[in-house]
Each structure stands twice: as C-alpha cells, then as structure tokens.
Write a structure and sequence with these properties.
heterodimer, A: about 250 residues, alpha/beta, 4-stranded antiparallel sheet, about 35% helix, B: about 270 residues, mainly alpha
Chain lengths: ~250, ~270
Amino acid sequence: MSKSFSPVLTLQDILKFRLANKNPVSALEDINFQLDSGKILGILGPNGAGKTTLLKCLCTLIIPDKGSIVIDHYLANTPADKIKSLFGFVDNEERSFYWRLSGIQNLEFFAAMYGLTPKQTKLRINELLSIFDINYIHKRFDTYSSGMKRKLSLLRAIIHRPKILLVDELTKSLDFDTSMSLYKFIKDLSANKTTIILTSHNIPEAENLCDTFMFLKSGKIAALGSIDTLHQNLKNADASLTDIYKTVMKNA
Amino acid sequence: MLRKIFALLKKDFLMESSYKLAFIMNIFSVCASLLIYFFINKLFGNNMNKYLEEFGVNYFSYVLLSMAFFSYIGVGIGSFSSRIRFEQLQGTLESLLLTPTKTEIILLSMTIWNIIFATIDVLIYFLFGLFLFKINFSNINLISTFAALILTIISFSSLGILSASFILIYKRGNPTAWLISTLEGVVGGVYFPISVLPGYLQIIAHCLPVTYAIRAIELAVYQGYSIFQLKNELLFLLIFSIVLCPLSLKAFKKAIYIACCRGSLTQY
C-alpha cells in the first residue's frame, strides 16, 4: 500500500475475544492494515470470519480487547463524538430504525443526531432521493420490503457526508437496478475521496468495485492487498478473485 | 444540543402518538384507580382520619395527591429502563450510539419526555380531583411544591438512569427498579401515611426518598408549608440528588462502555 499519503485508517494488533460458552474465542486476531483516503477495501470471508465485528470495531460500536485504531489522526480507543461523525455505517440488520415512523421521519431524526440543520437535512434528503429514485419515503418503515429498508439504511449512513463509509453486505436484498446504481454511487463517492470499506459474499461484485481486498478467516487476515499484489503472492497473474479466494481460504 | 434534544423529543412524540388508544386508556386507568380509592375511603375513611391529622385532609384527598405525584416518581424510575429496553429490542440503540450524540443529551431528553408524560398524568388526576371530587387545593404553596417536585424528579430520574444501566448490561432483570417498586408501595407512604405502619417499618420508611417526597408534597399542597417548614424533607432529597445524579451518569456511561467491550449493544 502507498505510504505517500497520510492513511485515513490505521489498525495495529487488533485483538477481539468473543465469549462462547464462557470460553473466549478470538473473533479478531492480529489485524494490521492501513488504508488511504478514497480507497475501497473489500473484506471477504466465510460466515463468522469476523467481518462485521471488524466494521463495528472501526466505528467504535465494539471496543477491541487489544491494539489501536487510528482514524484520521484520532485514536478510537474510547467512543468519541469527533470520530463518530467521520463514519457512516450500513448495518446488515433490518432492526435499527423506528418502525412506527415513516422513512423520512427516521432520516430527519438521524440527520439531526448527526448535527444537520433542518434546511441542510431537507436539501440532502432531496438530493439522495433523486439519486436512488425513492418514492416511498413518506410511508411507514414497517411497511417496507427488505430492499427498501436496505436503501434507507444506506441513505442514513451517507446523510452527513461521512469521510469513511462502512457497508456490511453491500447489495444484500437489493434488486439488479438498485445494485447497479449503488455500484456507480460507491465509485463516485470514492472519486470524491470518501474511503469505503465493504463486506461482501459476492466476489465478482467486490472485484468490480474494490481497490484492495482483505480475506478474513477465523478472525485472522489470510491475505491482504490489491489484485496485483495478490497475483504476485500467488505467482499467478491470470487468477480471478474467485480463484484467489478459493486458494487463500484453502491454504489459510 | 437543543436541536438534538428537540429531535429526540419529536421522535418520542411521533412514536407515542402512533399508539392512539394508549392515551385514552391511560385516562380510563386514572379514573378507575381513583374510583377504587374513593369507595375505599367511603368504607374505611373515618378510621384513617387520626393518621392524617397533620395533613388536614381525608384519606381520598391524601391518596389522590400521592398517586398523582407518584407519576413523576414511577415514570422517573421505570421509563429510563423501559426506553433503553425498547431501543435494544428495536435495534436502534446501536444506531443512536453511532451518532455523535453525548450520553447526557440522550438522558436529558428522556428526562424531559418523562416530565411531560408524568405532567399529563398529574393534570388528569388534578382535573378529576378538582371538578369531580371537589378536592380543595386552595392552600397550596407553589414555591415549596415546585422545590419538592424538582428535587424529586432529579432524585428519581437518577435512580431510573441507574436501573437503565443494569438493562444495558444484563438486558433483563433490574434490581434497582424491583427494590424501589416493591418497597415504595409498602412503606413509602403512597397509599397510606407511614404513621399507620409499625415502628420498625417506619424506620425503613425513613430511609427511603419516596417517603420524604410524598410527605413534602402533601404538606406543601394541603397545608401550604413553606420551604423552611419542609427543610428536613427537602434537605434529604437534595443530598440524595447530589449523590445520585453524578453517580448514575457515571454508571450509565460505564454500562455503555462494558456493552461496547462485550459487543452486546444489539443483544436483547
């Protein structure tokens, strides 16, 4: 990874235990990486590899047992307001909105919590609605389909123009057209220097979008780097990301 | 800060008003409980009068005021934990803590909402008392009533925040709320003056803030006692507030920290 830029994210020796039947199991172990501004990192790995835990550690929802996370020069050991406003997080849970409120009421509420004025909120919501072609924003959240909820989750995550966007399972529950417009949106965000970290089980999707890839297995980094670096490591310049995934997971 | 508090209150209002029947049912509940005590008073009221001499009212007037006032105490204790529990179940606790919003702002907005909600209850009690049961509130000392009210809200909101801290960590099982709700009904002087109780229970009663809160409000409203005349009760509540308010805030922050360390914010 290039050292010429000041990294927006630095993770060093991150260790997180998870208690399973009172026996601690490493959810994350020896996680070390740096990420420059405007890059898109794809985290790939099987279920339970620690992808969501890593995203939550980054945005201060989970505090690691050991190690340090530096975000834009701020240490993230304790949840701090300054750090929180740098992040937007698209959770893969449908539970995270007020179901008896409409989509727009939810967005207005979270926008206020991110410190936007009512005028800024209105402009931003209109801008986002036109990008994603959403016409159900005034309906109650509990009437939404999974895909509609997912879109609203994305809108909430970017409403305050975060510097770092974390997306857990990018196109989960989304239809083809929405996925395509989301890919374009993610690329545009990256071009505007937003750093993006996404998890995905869709390897071609990650290959299309990401600059850098992290393969996680049982909480450990099995491989990390750009497609060229991964080709070099495997000594196979023609390998697709799917081939790399299979080889890395087999050898890890 | 004000914008965030307003947004939190607006969200609570929109949520609450989406349950349209709840408000009407609440009025019926107040009315039903008042009728129960009205008829208890009719049956046994005369036997209670000797215990109520210092308050200068009959049993029904005493219990109406203590129940009305208890809205602030009950809502203060119970609603913080139930609101945190609701946010856990809804999954919104994590989303809320993801935003750059200080814990103090979240708790302050909850306190303001509790006060608004309890005040509606109190108004219903007072309207019934004034117009239906013709209770005389003309002796009220507004300054001492207000002082007792403020100190009670701070004390019991602090207890409520403390109990919400347990919910953050243990999800269910709330020893603070259990202890208070069990003790207050029996020995706190809400449903009858503590002078009815045997001596050893009166000693326990004098250790509870609810006893001082109820006594202060009864004497301020019905006998017009001044702040000076209520100095013992108010001083106890003041000490309780000074000790408990920062303690509960610290406990709540610590509970969030523990939940973040365990990664259990979304668990319920």
